[in-house]
Write a structure and sequence with these properties.
2 domains; Rossmann fold; binds nicotinamide-adenine-dinucleotide; globular; 14% strand; 360 residues; 6-stranded mixed sheet; alpha/beta
């Protein structure tokens, strides 16, 4: 694998390989772009089949964080880290060894929780480095990011509804929610609070019954959610749910949810546009959790987080407007906004000014 060529092609600044024989730690930190600020992104622990698989994943995820932070208007760059191994083999000494590596980067990379790591792990890492977010609220952490992600998704859905129907009221509209976990369940509560009609699914029958009881939601089988007649389909479980198999099934006007990597491939975004389905790009609408952890870097303030999460409404409208004006699919419009902000920031930096302008 031509690693440096791959870095050059994708515009990556740095790839750091870490190993510690004593604890068995094998980790890779990818710093994609720090134009807007230090690279923030979670640490994923996963038993990758090969080092190549881990490198490809960490680079893909780090690049995604650059775009997500840029569109959210944060003064942060994009990075990500992976620890190769099963989360079941996690030990305090391994996490502390990892924390010492993060510390050597002197704040160019700031870590957070991700798949296979949790708040407790961040508290352990914090014993070795300041460059970590998502810690215990008692120590200045922002706590569980899911309610903020859900609120951001709700705001984004309202913006898309406004674009499509001219008013952002959800009263009487049908929303199909796939996945009733930390984000999906919160989202249902917000939607039900506005008298939206809910169609829901989950692989966990208990949570499905609970949502049916609490919100008067119609429960459907997991494969029945795609062709539910609804105004909004909100994927809040898995990635790649818009794929060759599902694309013709959708009976919705809008796709807008929390899941990452909703499009199996970019071409599925083009296909949705052809079908007249308005897709709200995942990393634009699900930025609430990132906004929440990022705020810890400035001394966590709940009010500031709420304001920024509310701003997702306008950001989604900006993306949809660019898509409409330029005649491009919404996922490309979001990338364009992110790239514009980074380009402007580079120009500001080169001209000696320090403030980075906001999007929109
Ligand atoms: P979660 O694990 O708490 O919930 C996922 C839910 O989906 C679970 O209830 C699970 O049973 C259900 N599920 C799994 N497979 C399913 C299937 N085939 N059909 C229907 N339901 C299925 O996760 P979460 O924290 O709620 O996150 C949901 C999604 O949003 C994930 O894709 C996550 O990456 C993304 N996301 C979450 C956050 C956050 O703050 N938690 C932030 C950004 C993005």
């Amino acid at each position: 694998m031509e690693i440096i060529n791959r870095m050059t092609g994708g515009g990556f600044e740095q790839l750091v390989f870490c190993q510690d024989r004593e604890t068995g730690l094998k980790a890779i930190v990818a710093i994609h772009d720090t134009t807007l600020g230090p690279a923030l992104g979670g640490t994923r622990m996963w038993p990758y089949g090969s080092e190549e698989e881990a490198i490809v994943d960490v680079m893909r995820l780090a690049r995604g964080m650059t775009y997500k932070a840029a569109v959210a208007g944060l003064s942060l760059g994009g990075g990500k880290a992976v620890i190769i191994g099963s989360p079941a083999d996690k030990t305090e000494t391994l996490l502390r060894a990892y924390g010492r590596f993060v510390d050597t980067l002197k704040g160019r990379y700031i870590t957070a929780e991700d798949v296979g790591t949790c708040q407790w792990d961040m508290d352990v890492i914090h014993r070795e480095t300041q460059h970590v977010t998502g810690c215990d609220p008692a120590r200045g952490g922002g706590g569980d990011p899911s309610p903020f992600t859900a609120r951001g998704v709700y705001n984004g859905i309202k913006a898309a509804v406004k674009k499509r129907y001219g008013t952002d009221s959800l009263n009487g509209l049908t929303v199909a929610v796939q996945g009733l976990g930390n984000v999906g369940y919160h989202l249902c509560r917000l939607l039900a609070g506005e008298c939206a009609r809910l169609v829901v699914t989950d692989i966990n029958p208990k949570v499905l019954q609970k949502a049916a009881r609490e919100f008067g939601a119609e429960a459907v089988a997991t494969d029945g959610i795609y062709d539910s007649h609804c105004h909004v389909f909100a994927p809040c479980a898995l990635g790649a749910v818009v794929n060759d198999e599902t694309i013709e099934k959708f009976r919705c006007a809008i796709i807008a949810g929390a899941a990452n990597n909703v499009l199996a491939e970019e071409r599925h975004g083009d296909a949705l546009r052809k079908r007249g389905i308005l897709y709200v790009p995942d990393y634009v609408i699900n930025a609430g959790g990132l906004i929440n952890v990022a705020d810890e870097l400035y001394g966590y303030q709940r009010q500031r987080v709420d304001q920024r999460v509310a701003q997702i409404y306008n950001t989604v409208l900006d993306v949809l407007t660019v898509s409409e004006k330029e005649g491009i699919p919404t996922h490309r419009a979001a990338d364009r906004l992110a790239e514009q902000r980074i380009k402007q920031a580079k120009m500001y930096k080169n001209s000696g000014q320090r403030e980075v302008p906001m999007v929109g």
